[in-house]
Amino acid sequence: MAEITIIPAKSRAEEIIRTAAYARVSSDSEDxxxxxxxxxxxxTEMLQNSINTVFVDMYAxxxxxxxxxxxxxxxxxxxxxxxxxxxDRILTKSISRFARNTKDSLEAIRELKxxxxxxxxEKENIDTGEISSEMLLAIYSQFAQEESMSISKNCRMGxxxxxxxxxxxxxxxxxxxDYVNGKLKIDPEKAEVVKQVFYWYISGIGTSEIxxxxxxxxxxxxxxxxxTVYSILTNEKYxxxxxxxxQFTTDTLPFRQVKNVGERPKYYISNTxxxxxxxxxxxxxxxxxxxxxxxxxxxxxxxxxxRKINCICGGTFRRKKNGGKxxxxxxxxxxxxxxDCHIRQIGEWVFQTAFIRMWxxxxxxxxxxxxxxxxxxxxxYKREKSDNAQLVSLRREISEIKQQMHLLAMLNSQGTLxxxxxxxxxxxxxxxxxITQKQLCASLDDKESERLGELRKLMGILEKAEPMTEFxxxxxxxxxxxxxxxxxxxxxxxxxxxxxxxxHIKR
Length: 507
Known about the structure:
Blueprint: E1 17-25, H1 36-47, E2 53-62, H2 73-83, E3 89-92, H3 95-98, H4 102-114, E4 118-121, E5 126-127, H5 133-164, E6 177-180, E7 183-186, H6 188-202, H7 207-217, H8 226-233, E8 242-244, E9 247-249, E10 257-259, E11 267-269, H9 279-291, E12 309-311, E13 317-322, E14 325-330, H10 331-335, E15 346-347, H11 348-369, H12 371-386, H13 389-413, H14 419-444, H15 447-463, H16 473-479, E16 480-487, E17 490-495, E18 499-504
Parallel strand pairs: 1-2, 1-3, 3-4, 12-16
Antiparallel strand pairs: 4-5, 6-7, 8-11, 9-10, 13-14, 14-15, 16-17, 17-18
Helix pairs in contact: 1-13, 4-5, 7-8, 12-15, 13-14
């Protein structure tokens, strides 16, 4: 009879559990519990007596909103280290510290569970390693989301109160003014441009033509467009008045700024600052705007192609309506001498058809077209970064600072340090770490890193994509940066990740 040997199951308690901690802390708070050093001390003291636990690292985002995971660089670093297999378990104070958005929270937890990583929320006493934890986590995440929405609501109430009593300060400064000691002051040079815009319009010149004249004059670096001119002509600030809450923030996540067309009250305050335009002139312009035929470029619903079509001649395309159909035409061809640009107007459906054709090619062959490019770029980027002496030095410095902070926290927990000395050294390490991390982020924030991220995003979109039969504005907006019209029969799509594809077109 064969001999059977029973191999006992290995208890998780016998394993060395690599534990990390995550927190969102305020960089300007004087509360020691919110400081980076205090968080490290807290988790070091918690884990120092455990024989099967090792503290990997402390991840903390400072002084930023928690409503979106994309804005939290340390949270993204934590997730990256988890994907690399460096962490087995994550500790965090509460769900509201981990995420204030149910979607972000559940997406992160589900990914971590597939990686075999559990998260423990101390305040709620939830361990995602337990089978029934996800439903409870969803409930608590909803509470955290409601808390975030409540905080946002309270902030908006404060803004509305300041609007009602006339003490609100608008963070944006209209063209023609500067902020001096909290008040709007006229910029003489820019004010002359504003006056010229009003004069031209009263003289019968349209907004698009005014924008073209201003672009030719080079009065500012930014490109003038008809919408920019229209906003100047309709802005009450140029007669010294202020209208508040032209836009408002939605009540639900994700928070968005939308135009106020009657959903919220508006607050009109007269004589809040020196005027640039006389009221009689402003009123005359408003009457002309109402009486003249609306510019076909200026529509409430923006086209997916808006500000994305460029011409080989160097001009930009604008949208126009002709015979009930939508066309796009180069401004140089439309408003100047035709000899400057020979390309005639192109129907919007032509661009749509070309995009559908390009999308289906990419969707079918992206693994052979984009994947090799992505792998090559990743290899070159990693090689460049590994050879970068500055990055190596900064990473080494961050590691040394963290080691010193760990040691300082352990010595203090043993009662061997004077409290005043500990506080002074902790604050010093805090400052050093913050400065060094900012330097590292600045060094990593280069064009190649951005391009890598865009290529990965493009691959992710295409891997989940299906063939397209009708034009999809959302997918177009996700992957197309610009379109260049090369001739009357050829256009080039510039995609995210700096990839270009040429398509032939038929009118």
